[in-house]
Each structure stands twice: as C-alpha cells, then as structure tokens.
Amino acid sequence: MPSFHSRPLHESLEEYGRGIAGGLLFSLPLLYTMEVWWSGFLIESSRLLAGLFLTYGLLLAYNRFAGMRPGTWAADILIDSVEELGLGIVLSALVLFVLGRITFETPSHEVLGKIVVETMVVAIGASVGTAQLGAKQAKEEEEDSPSGEAESREKEDAETQSPFHGQLLLGFCGAVLFAANIAPTEEVVLIAAEASPGRLLALTGLSLLIGAIILYYSGFIGAQPLIRGNDWSEMVMEITASYVIALIASAILLWFFGRFDGESFTTMLGQTVVLGFVAMLGASAGRVLIQ
Amino acid sequence: MNSEPQREQKNWFEWLVFAISLVLVLALVGYLCRDIWTARSGPPDIEITLSPASKRSGHYVVPVTVTNRGYESAEAVHLEVTLKKKSGEEERAEVELQFLPRGSTRRAVVTFESDPAEAEVSARVLGHRRP
Question: Which of A273, A280, B72, B95 is most buried by its number of CB atoms within 10 A?
Fold first, then answer.
C-alpha cells in the first residue's frame, strides 16, 4: 500500500543546495574562460538551441540511469531535468553578472548566448551534485542492517547496475562534463595543428591505456561492479566502446564551439583525438564517479 | 521502483522551482527559435561616433563609441581616426577592438597632439576579421 506524503522543505532545500554546489564545482573552469564568453556571441542561435536540447537529453539520461531516483522513466525525470536546466540558467546568469561578463547594457543575444553555453555544463553538474554530493542517501538510512553491510551494498550495486546502453549514456555524460572545460580553448586547436600523425596515434594509445587502467587495473572506486567481465573480449569491447563514446562527445563539443568551422577533415580528426584524451578520462573515471 | 511503499510527493517549493525553471527554459527556447525563424543575417555594420575632445596631460583625448548594427559579430576591429588641420597637415591615431559582437557597443579613446576642436576629425574602420 503506497503512502503518499510531501517531502519536507528542508530536504528539498538541501537538494537544491547540492545542485548549486555541483553545478559550480564542475563548471567553474568554463565560467572563468574567455573563449567561452566569446563563444556566447559567436555561436549562432540554431547551434545554441541544439546545445540546449543535447543538454536536456543528457540530463534525462543521467537522471534515468544514475541520478537521485534511478531506474524509472516517470514524469519525475522530465520534471527534475527541467529544474536542473532552470537552476543552470539562474546560476550561470548570476555568476556571469557578478564576474561582469554580462551587464544591463549587453545586447540580448550576447547575454542569452553566454548563459546557454554555460548552462550546458552547470546543469549537468547540478544534476551530478544533487545525486552524488549528499552525505547520506535516503535508501542507505533505511537499510541500516547491523551485519553484512558491505554485502548488502554489493547486492544493491548489482541490482541497480544500469544496462550496457545506460553505461554508454553515462559515459557520454562523463565525457561531456570533463571535455567541455577543455573544448572551447585555443589550446586544442594549437596542439592538433602541431601534432604529427605519430603523436596523434600515441595519444590514441594513451587514451585506451588510461581507460584500461581506470576500469580494470587500479581498483578504482566503484569501477568493479560496473564492468561486466574480466575476459579479453569483454575488456576490449568495454574499452573500445568507452573510447568511441569519448570521441563522439569530443566531436560534438568541438562542433558546438565552432572549432570545426572551415577546417579540413585532418584537422578536425586531430582535434577530436586531442580532446578525446580528456573525454576518455570522463568516459571512464568520470562515468564511475558520477553514479 | 514504483513498488516501493513510500513515494514522496513534491512539496509546494519544488513545484515553484519547477514552474520558474519551465518558464525560463521555454523563454530561452522561444527566443532562440524566433531568432532562427526571423533569419536575420548580414555582415557587421559598424558605426563610429566621436565625442568632443578633452585635454589630459599635454594631449587631447577623443572618446570613440563603436556600435555594430549588423547581424554578425566582428573580430579584431581596426579603427583609424584622422585629424586634418586647417594648414592641411594630418595626424592619425589608431585603436583596435578585440571583439564587436552583433548589436553591441564598445568604447575606446584616441589621442592627438593638436586640438581637435580646431581641426576636422574623421574616423573609419580599416578592417576586421569575420569569425
């Protein structure tokens, strides 16, 4: 018999507080980067709109597979994701205003452009913060069994472990969260322009190696229950899939920040591989940490 | 998940936050859509306004106000202000603006040795990059 009751006010305030903390924690580099402010007025509206929808999609995916109440597609997820987007907008606007990046005289397109670009990461950060930064999760309070706490925790992990496509989507969220802080900088273009094919290949190898170490060989916190098996084929599959996700996330972010405009295919590929290293950290370590 | 006996309802504060968020998100999407459908485009249209000069430690400072009335942003806007004295002698000053986003106004100053009040002052954009 389900009993319906309202969540206490202090609990929701705590949730929003964690959302604010998480949003700022993950996006501070972006809020303090010149290229991001510029991209606010350089990116055209259609691209900003696409970015906004992509962010909403990522929020849905995160809240579905890892957020506060994982495992349901209910209206709650749609509502929570809108709230996080709203929190992102307000927080970005506030910080940009305090930093003097938007003023009352700034034209509306520039203001909204800057806010949208910052909101993308602030909102995902808020979602992660709400779910992950809480001192004590409600479900852990309930099952306060004196014996075998580790066992029940492990069992719970196995039960709540998201399916393979869920893991890929979470990997994508992690990759975006990490790579978004690097994607808008000039450094990516510079490294890609100067890198020889051999260097790029080495970077690819390093990305895969880092992924393997984090997911399989370092006893990384929380990684064990998420991977499916230790045999070679599973391992190669898992790492390759993570890297592909990382490269896709890199390419989308680079396109969003206008780094692909007027570039040759070779330069685009180079930039994607350069950013892919960062994204791979997000798709492996980031993915494990945010769920 | 829904089989759990306890299912918490949103309280009024959470509904309020949701309502505000929804309005903000819809307003943002609405603005961007309108901006896309009206499909205004065109190169930067840069307007320069010169204000009266003032004397500061031995030279004359002329405030320059630059506005981009086009629908594209301009990058590295290079301005030249020329002062033409009655004797026919010319004095030039230059200033560069890193960015001039569409619809925005930026302020700068140029300085001259001679008094602009007794000469003819004109300004033009030497060139700029298109991002």
Answer: A280
